[in-house]
Design a protein that fits this description.
The structure holds two protein chains of two kinds.
Chain A lengths: L7 H12 L15 E5 L7 E7 L2 E12 L10 E8 L13 H16 L10 E3 L3 E13 L4 H15 L1 E3 L1 E7 L2 E6 L6 E3 L7 E8 L2 E4 L3 H6 L2 E7 L21 E7 L6 H34 L11
Parallel strand pairs in A: 4-6
Antiparallel strand pairs in A: 1-2, 2-3, 3-6, 5-6, 7-10, 8-9, 11-12, 11-13, 13-14
Chain B lengths: L24 E5 L7 E7 L2 E12 L11 E8 L15 H17 L8 E11 L4 H15 L9 E10 L2 E6 L3 H5 L4 E7 L4 E8 L4 H32 L3 H6 L1
Parallel strand pairs in B: 4-5
Antiparallel strand pairs in B: 1-2, 2-3, 3-5, 6-7, 6-8, 8-9
Classes of the chains: A alpha+beta, B alpha+beta.
Pfam families (chain A): RNase_PH, RNase_PH_C
Protein name (chain A): Ribosomal RNA-processing protein 42
Keywords (chain A): Cytoplasm, Exosome
Chain lengths: 309, 250
């Protein structure tokens, strides 16, 4: 983290706090900081969300484009992640300064969404082998206060939940080319099935223990952090009761490690399990919040705050 | 004669405004905790964030003994426009905008107070619907005030265009995206309305010199109106007495 200087004694204080399961801001090791989430904040995008996790501020916009599917997967759509570290977060990101961090996050997201069990790309197919939707997921990091990956994954899932894809009204075949006519009505559109989209959970190893949702200070105390991507559960994202009740297990779609240190295999396994549990409760909370917001939206009860709050 | 259809026969513009009417401005100071000053500004559907870091020690290559170095970066979110942008910054347009921002804001800052120092001003356009540069200058002014940097005057920017109504020229204030795209003249002015001076003036397309004065005076009027709005926002913010920054330090 930029501009953050901690003395040795401050680091020891944080470390002792983690050992006693009572962190410097009063949380336990498995607690998240409060979050604010709002969807549909950018009207030029098909879907958008803004998430503020304590000091971390993420804005995600989803744009759709018609593209040609990949030859090896003719019935699937395409999805592309782009992360932009705004210089608003820290002057170090000015110019090309944030590109390394940006590409590491976008690669991580791309890997987490790669599995077909994580995000079903078939729902983006329009015309097999000829046309498909391409989703550009643009992530803008406006402020860094630790735990970027978790915040990004939550905001992306919220933005995808909010994304509307217009229906195709007519398709004209002209030789080998397809000419599509899309519906102009913004409400004549479908929503994506994002229930199973993965969430990332960062586990920061401080001393001998792992904590979730590290703040910027805690991140600077840790030598290594583990990031697990866990698929979501579809039932949290739908109000239909008749969906089969079988609870889908959170499956790991990606595991990554960051930092110069190393961990023992046993600690690693414990940390992964801890991550899966955390992801499950995060997923449930996110689903509830998104459904509640959609309900308010239908009833025209929702106030739009954006950054003015 | 460009854009005779920018005004309806009733004298209203495409988005229903009168010729001398600004879009609705909503703004907030102190949106972020990390920068020394930050502000968010909405002008109609154009939404802009600005952050200010500094004054801090200048990079060696930039350092000047005469006064503070003002470093600006203008970037546009990839999802901000109707068509997706590939790069948020680094293209010609953003570089030009960064230079224009620097020119307008350097005129407002009391640069002589901080020799060998640097002030970083970052403007991020979240949603562009015409007049993003003007909104950027206005937001940056608020962010500078939030950072407590001494200013000579508010730097306010406003654009103006020209339309015809019943054979008479009628200048339009605060040009939106649709009017920009219609291809008429766009005159962008960044001014210090308090002193009445103009820090930056830029014009695209052609305009007969006979009409230059009316369009310019309309744009200056817009700058004065914006100054009143910004001033009220600053006073309200100060009356409230705290920013997010303060909460964290407590």
């Amino acid at each position: 983290m930029a501009g953050l200087l901690l003395s040795e004694t401050e680091k020891v204080f944080i470390l002792h706090g983690v050992q006693d399961d009572y962190r410097s801001d009063g949380r336990s090791n498995i607690d998240y900081r409060p979050m604010e989430l709002e969807t549909d904040v950018v009207s030029h995008a098909s879907g958008s969300a803004r998430l503020r996790l304590a000091n971390t501020d993420i804005l995600v916009g989803v744009k759709t484009e018609i593209d040609v599917p990949k030859p090896d997967k003719p019935d699937s759509g395409r999805i592309e992640f782009f992360v932009d570290c705004s210089a608003n977060a820290t002057p170090e990101f000015e110019g090309r300064g944030g590109e390394q961090l940006a590409s590491s996050i976008s690669n991580l997201m791309q890997r987490a969404y790669h599995s077909s069990q994580a995000f079903n790309l078939k729902q983006l197919c329009i015309f097999e082998g000829k046309q498909c939707w391409k989703l550009y997921i643009d992530i803008l990091i406006l402020e860094c206060g630790g735990n970027l990956c978790d915040a990004v994954s939550l905001a992306v899932k919220a933005a995808l939940f909010n994304t509307r894809i217009p229906f195709v009204k007519a398709a004209l075949m002209d030789g080998g080319n397809v000419d599509l006519q899309l519906s102009d009505d913004p409400y004549d559109s479908k929503l994506l099935d994002v229930g199973s989209a993965p969430l990332l959970v960062t586990l920061c190893k401080i001393g001998e223990n792992c904590v979730v949702d590290p703040s910027a200070e805690e991140e600077s105390c840790s030598v290594i952090s583990l990031i697990v991507g866990v698929t979501g559960n579809r039932q949290y994202y739908t109000q239909e009761e008749e969906t089969d009740k079988k609870t889908m297990e959170g499956k790991c779609t990606t595991i990554a490690m960051h930092g110069p240190g190393s961990v023992a295999p046993k600690t690693l396994k414990e940390a992964i399990n801890q991550g899966i549990i955390a992801a499950k409760s995060l997923d449930e909370a996110l689903g509830q919040a998104l459904l509640r917001e959609r309900q308010e939206n239908i009833g025209f009860k929702k106030h739009s705050y954006g950054f003015l709050k | 004669m460009p854009g005779p259809d920018l005004l309806s026969s009733q004298g209203l513009r495409l988005d229903g405004r009168r010729p001398n009417e600004l879009r609705r401005i909503k703004c907030k100071l102190g949106v972020f905790t990390q920068p020394d000053g930050s502000a968010y500004l909405e002008q109609g559907n154009t939404k802009v964030l600005a952050a200010v870091y500094g004054p801090h020690q200048a990079a060696k290559s930039k350092s000047s003994t005469d006064g503070v170095v003002v470093n600006c970066q203008y970037s546009t979110a990839t999802f901000s426009t109707g068509e997706r942008k590939n790069r948020p910054r680094g293209d010609r347009k953003s570089q030009e905008m960064s230079m224009h921002l620097r020119q307008a804001l350097t005129a407002a800052i009391k640069t002589e107070l901080y020799p060998r120092s640097q002030i970083d001003i970052y403007v991020e356009v979240l949603q562009a619907d015409g007049g993003a540069y003007c909104a950027g200058v206005n937001a940056a002014t608020l962010a500078l005030i939030d950072a407590g940097i001494p200013l000579r005057a508010y730097a306010c920017a406003c654009s103006a265009s020209m339309a015809w109504r019943a054979g008479q020229p009628e200048p339009l204030l605060d040009v939106g995206h649709v009017e920009e795209a219609a291809g008429g003249v766009v005159l962008t002015v960044a001014a210090l309305p308090n002193t009445g001076s103009i820090a930056l003036l830029e014009m695209s397309h052609r305009l007969h010199m006979d009409y230059f004065d009316v369009v310019l005076s309309r744009a200056m009027q817009g700058c004065r109106d914006i100054e009143i709005i910004l001033d009220r926002a600053v006073r309200d913010h100060l009356a409230e007495g705290w920013t997010k920054q303060d909460i964290v330090t407590i």
